[in-house]
Amino acid sequence: MPDPILSIRDLTVEFETEDGVVQAVTDVTYDLQPGEVLGVVGESGSGKSVSMLSVLGLSPSARIPKGEAIFKGEDLLKLSQKRLREIRGGPMAMIFQDPMTSLNPVLTVGDQIAEAVLTHNLGTSDDDARKRTVELLEVVGVPYAERRVDQHPHEFSGGMRQRAMIAMAIANNPSVLVADEPTTALDVTIQAQIVEVLKAAREETHAAIVLITHDLGLIAELADRVVVMYAGRVVELSDVYTIFNAPRHPYTVGLMNSLARLDAEQEWLEPIPGQPPSMIAPPPGCAFHPRCSFSHGRLVCRTDIPGLRQIGEGAAHHSRCHFAEELEEAHVVAGAAAEEAR
Amino acid sequence: MTEGNGMPHESDELLRVEGLVKHFPIKAGVFKSTVGQVRAVDGVDLTVKKGETLGVVGESGCGKTTLGRTIIKLIDPTAGSIIFDGRDITALGRREMRPVRREIQIVFQDPYASLNPRMTVSEIVAEPLRIHGIYKADGKKRIAELLRTVGLSPEHGNRFPHEFSGGQRQRIGVARALALNPSMIVLDEPVSALDVSIQAQVVNLLASLQNDFGLTYLFIAHDLSVVRHVSDRIAVMYLGKIVEVGSRNEIYDTPMHPYTQALLSAVPIESPNQRGKRSRIVLEGDVPSPADPPSGCRFRTRCWKAQEICAEQEPPLVARDPSKPGLLSACHFAEVMRPLALAADEAPADAPTTTV
Known about the structure:
The structure holds two protein chains of two kinds. Chain A is of the alpha/beta class.
């Protein structure tokens, strides 16, 4: 395997609140390989966004007691704000969920994209920056780019704004693109357009993409590998086919089984019982045990936090469950894949 | 069948909406003169039968939320009529609406904004009973029963909304809607704000309540998988109009309107095993402004089938295939396509497709 382009090790992130310390991310470790799409899945509060935002220095109130994030030989967590600013929007760029609030309403869309070009390429002339901006808008499929470059964000629809955000992110040929819920605020027909734009952006830049989302459909379409997070920890990690066809963590299985299916009749859905845990006082042992249908009340689930361990042959599949092998013996296949197998 | 008022009325029909229109004025200038109309709902006909769930789907701005709120008269319609249980409620005033409100309730999308943060859960659920003057001595018992019905415990009653998670708050909203024993509930995106694992809990709760109390639902949502799961029949909205309505299987398996087809084919695949095996219609452009909708068929500006007639004549919402009398489509060129089983080599040549 080639050297990872981004390597996150034992990342722990806390927030001080009135009610106590929120343990948002605990001991998160994963690698991003050059050119791959790594999906990071989890529900709200699972720490999937916070882990990336804190690495990028975009979560100012976060406390990071330990961990490292090595990007091209530098630990992002130890860099000065100045150096981080050079990296963000340059070799590492971001696409956020809400294009309404991420664009400056008083500047034209073109000026904002050109700013990204100029900031990271000192000495570029305004004319060249504008030319590059139009080119970028064309890559992301904004029609009449030559004219729309001078419009303000309010003149763009939600889908067009998200395209402009992607244009800005790929302006400097990043090697890592962090997309945080890039399609969540959009309608389904616009979502389909943006998926195509993300594919085009990947073609254009060959960037590795960290795709943070709660939408398993987006993962099924785009991801090469998947990190599943629950209660601030990585609970499962594997290639996308294994995650869907042979999941080995009860949370992953529960998540896929709880989805309503588009192509099948189901009398009842299969929810995960209970509520997500409090991150101030998480349950002892495995954080998922109060909702787990495979724990069967076993003591070790309530007392010991399971480690993230390798499953089966090869180093690719990891699960944080004491009894991951039982899922294997039971031939657990989840969600849509189970339907196909039938 | 004929009711006493001489209106033809089928006995299994609970709600009938005819020609419903809601326009919002656009005001501008110092004197706030009206410079235009947002045609949020622009001529909607639909019926809901007793005990069924009618799903209403469409993208943001299509008017589905306005439709739901107009039907229960939270907003007064601009034109058209709403007939509930055989009675025209369109022109009823506040006082006359009271008994009707006991029959139709609503659950809102945002469980954070729709519960008063200063009231305890018991007070929130009791409020409809008090307003209707039926919170009697056994009111406490009734509240406890309602909380148990939605999967909360009576002890939760003394707490405040902020102490609950999103899914639990939505249960509180459902308990409040149930308090008056309604026959119909308008569910406006009831699970959209919830995490997937919690969505399934609330969807199951709604289904069992429907079984237990014989409720009729108008289920408004944009999530096509959830709508398929809960609905008996489905109406698809685009720019203030219903473009297609039919049974669940007709809409999902054999839709005839190009917009329904494009909408369904845009839904992400459910497993990576399906990669490369499905064709997707990718619509170009955005939804036009409801303040200035296209002439004729409103979908024509994004439709790959559009011809001259589409700009000139608005296609009526009628049955287009004699073998499917229940499937009504508003398209001049209605034709069956199977968007969820559209193989990579089967895509119609004239449609803008891509391989998933």
